[in-house]
Amino acid sequence: MPAPSPYGQAHADNSPEGVNSGAGILLEQLKSPSEHDIAVITTLWIATGLIPAIRDARQDIENCIKADHGSLIVARHPSDNQIIATMMTGHDDIFGWIHYLAVAKLAQNRGIGHELVGLAEDIVRSSGLSQIRVTVETPAAGDFYAKLGYELINHATDQATPDTIRNTIMRKSLDQ
To answer: What is the rounded distance in angstroms from the CA atom of residue 176 to the CA atom of residue 173?
Structure first.
């Protein structure tokens, strides 16, 4: 059993009561993204710090779509159909995984990230797996997942101390 997560302790829940919880947001599993979709996703991932500005997300997107157990989910704004959030999820027959969870700045603090993580958990649970994992690289990401019940795995690759964020893995049991 891992030690209690150090994440989530420094941030209070600052979301105002009654915040739009993503109502009206359109979720879609992208199976054949257009060139425009790939460009928008790449821009979103760069803007949210998931990938460096010199990288094209095309290969990661194609790998996810071609994977037997992978899904690329996008959230689109209902008024203009623009992609405002992404998440890749899937499993390796042992654990479920969340990758590339990103929410555009204009859409943050509305529950969209929470809803996408819940969807990933449902997808993994329906595959018969009882644990989902995520790699976090920033304290803010660690805090976000800790609020959703994820625990730090202390023996993650490249993790010298719990304060070292790069390549930190968090997990959640789905048996609850």
So the answer is: 7
Please answer whether residues 167 and 141 qualify as being in contact, where contact means their C-beta atoms are separated by less than 8 angstroms.
Answer: no
Of 139, 136, 80, residue with least CA distance to 104: 80
Q: How many CB atoms lie within 10 A of CB 10?
A: 11
**CATH H superfamily, domain 26-173:** Gcn5-related N-acetyltransferase (GNAT) (3.40.630.30)
* Burial environment of residue 34 by CB neighbours within 10 A (0 to 12, 13 to 18, 19 or more): exposed
Question: CA–CA separation, 27 vs 25, rounded Å?
Answer: 6
Q: pTM score, two decimals?
A: 0.79
What's 143's DSSP letter?
H
CA distance 3 to 20: 34
Q: Are 83 and 40 in contact (CB under 8 A)?
A: yes
* 3-59 pLDDT per residue, tens: 333 444 433 333 333 234 455 889 999 999 999 999 999 999 999 988 888 877 889
What is the DSSP-derived secondary structure letter of residue 121? H
* Dihedral angle, C-alpha 82, 50, 155, 68, nearest 10 °: 50
